[in-house]
Amino acid sequence: MSENGIKPYVRLVKSSELDVLATIQRRAFIDDPECNYFGSVDQPLSDEVDSPGKQHLETFFRFLTKACLRCGARITVAVVPSSESAGEDSEEKICASTIWMPPNKRISLGSVWALVRSGVFATVKGWGLNGLIRVGVEYGEVSGRALKEAYATRGLKKQSPDSSWYLQLACTDPHEQGKGYMSLLCREAFAHAPSSIFTLEATTSHSRDRYTHFGFELFKEVRMGVNKVNKDGLPAKGKEAEGVPIYSMVKWE
Ligand SMILES: CC(C)(COP(=O)(O)OP(=O)(O)OC[C@H]1O[C@@H](n2cnc3c(N)ncnc32)[C@H](O)[C@@H]1OP(=O)(O)O)[C@@H](O)C(=O)NCCC(=O)NCCS
C-alpha cells in the first residue's frame, strides 16, 4: 500500500509506455558498473547533467526493451494509480519493471530482424560497435557459461539454462526504491510460473542481496572487462583494472 492508501499492483506493460519505461530504466542504471562498461563511459554519468552518455544509455534501454518484446518477453510493471484521479480513467504511475524471457525465448544477435526493427543502429551510433559486442557477445558468453556450470553442478547437465525464466532486466525508479515494488513484481512472476527455475545476473551487491531475499542462490561471481576497467566500469590500469563483477544466480524450483 502506498503512503496515500492507494494500492500498487502488477500488470503487463503497454506498448505506449515503452518511452516512459526507458527513462525509468536509464535513471535506475545511471551509475551501474556494467552499463558504464558497455557504454565505454570514461567518467561517472549523472541524472542531473545532460550528456551524450546519459542519452545513449536511454537509447540502449529503449532498444533492449523493444527487442525483448519482439523476442517474446513478458514485461511487467508495478503501478500506482495517481492520487488525484483514482477513478476508472486514472493515470497510472510506473514505479518498477521486470523483463522476463520465458523458457526457450532469448534475445541474441542472431535475431537480426527484431534487433533492426527495435533500433539497434541507434545503439551502435551511441555506444559504437564495441558497445554492441560487449553487451551482445561478451556478456552473453560470460553469463551463459556461468549458468551452464550452475546447472551442471546441480546435476542438470542435460538441461539447458535456456529452459529457465530469465530475468533480462529489473529496476525500480530511484525515488520509489525500498518500497517493496520489486518484491511485488518477483512474487507475481513466481506465481505466474510456479515450479519453474528462474535465472538472472545481478550487477551490484545491492541487487544481489535483494535477489537472495527472494530465494535466488548465488552460484558464482564472474567478471567482465578485466585489465580494462575498474569495479565501477570506468577505465583503469594495473591492479585497479579488476573488471566489473556479475553475480550469477538461480532460483531452483
Ligand atoms: C535492485 C532493485 C531492483 C530493488 O528494487 P526495490 O523496489 O527497491 O526493492 P524492494 O523494495 O522490493 O525490496 C526488495 C526486498 O529486499 C528486502 N531487503 C531490503 N534490504 C535488504 C538487504 N540488505 N538484504 C536483503 N534483503 C533486503 C526488502 O525487505 C524487500 O523484501 P520484502 O518485500 O519481503 O520486505 C532496485 O534497487 C534497482 O532498481 N536498482 C538499480 C538497478 C538494478 O540494479 N537492477 C537489478 C540488476 S538487473
TrEMBL record:
Gene3D superfamilies: 3.40.630.30. InterPro entries: Acyl_CoA_acyltransferase, Trichothecene_AcTrans. It comes from the Eukaryota. This is N-acetyltransferase domain-containing protein. It comes from Neolentinus lepideus HHB14362 ss-1. The lineage of its organism: Eukaryota, Fungi, Dikarya, Basidiomycota, Agaricomycotina.
